[in-house]
Replication protein (Gemmobacter lutimaris), 362 residues
Amino acid sequence: MKKRRTFDIDLPEADEPTTEAEAPAPRRSPMATAISENAESLRDRRAVEAQIRAENDALAAEHVRMKKLGLIVDLVDLDAVETWKLVRDRAKGDDMELAELVASIRDLGLSNPIRVEARADGKYELVQGFRRLAAYRQLLEETGDAESWGRIPAGILPRGEDLEALYRRMVDENLVRKDISFAEMAMLALNYARDPQTAENDADRAVAELFKSAGYQKRSYIRQFIRVMDRLGDDLRFAPHIPRSLGLQLAAAIDERPELVPQIRAVLRGWDNRSVTDEIDVLRKALGAEAEDEAAPGKGGAAVPPKPATKAKTTFQVPTPLGTAKCTAANGRLEIRLDRDFSAFDRRKLEAALTRLLAEIS
């Protein structure tokens, strides 16, 4: 009897892969899976954080750029705004349009914020918007409504901009005003030259520095008005109303006939109730042939006595421990300009110092 031969054949099971490609991936432990997922999450979070940092850096750079341009606007307390650093070109006590501005702001609000420079003490120095600030202060005084008028929208400039640039900002804004007069621009140039913080001491050269945006002809007119305001500015109450042609003629006349200066002063001195028309008439008559014999208006026909020509004003600088003081000596006035807030000084010390000064020069 033959023995049956047995062949061992290994048949693959139905669910077992037959190729290497079909083989399952090695199973990872739960710990390995958690680590992998955490690493992926960490990469995603870092990518998001990097994107956020880039956006924040871009926003910060834009904020700095806008701040340098004075385009960052905030509400600033009126009491925190000072106006002593820059000499304004606006004539004091003769702003006919302030009432209109007050009414407009009351009804419609402020359409154009003022501009201020941040100070180290937390306050602000006004650069542009003297009339807007004055209107807000008047509204606060009239209404007592500090919620509405106690703070004013202001574009805040960073500290550090040089004084000449701040003056230019103010001047360039005001040059677009239709009502700004040659007398006001001339007084600004004069006061700029007298300011102890500025490097320029000559008013004519200050015109070139301040009014670069103005045309040559306008700068020439301003220089002519400087000669009038330098000699008569303290005596004129309505200088902004002097017509251009009259101012130019007056400048030429007082150069040729210096005796006109004391004559005009004599007419205006003590005439407190004079009007714009009265003052302009005095200047017009001074240019006529009969100026020396013209009766003073409102003085009962008393003739103006001729006086010898005098130097209208003397300007000089004095070095002091507090800095260089710019001094102006004129008829009835001695002015000292120094980069100090004299209101912060003890009043008794100021009085004692002035007493010694006056006793020394008397």
Q: What stands out?
A: The radius of gyration is 38 Å. The chain has three domains: 57-177, 181-311, 313-361. Residues 142 and 299 are 38 Å apart (CA to CA). The first strand starts at residue 73 and ends at 77.
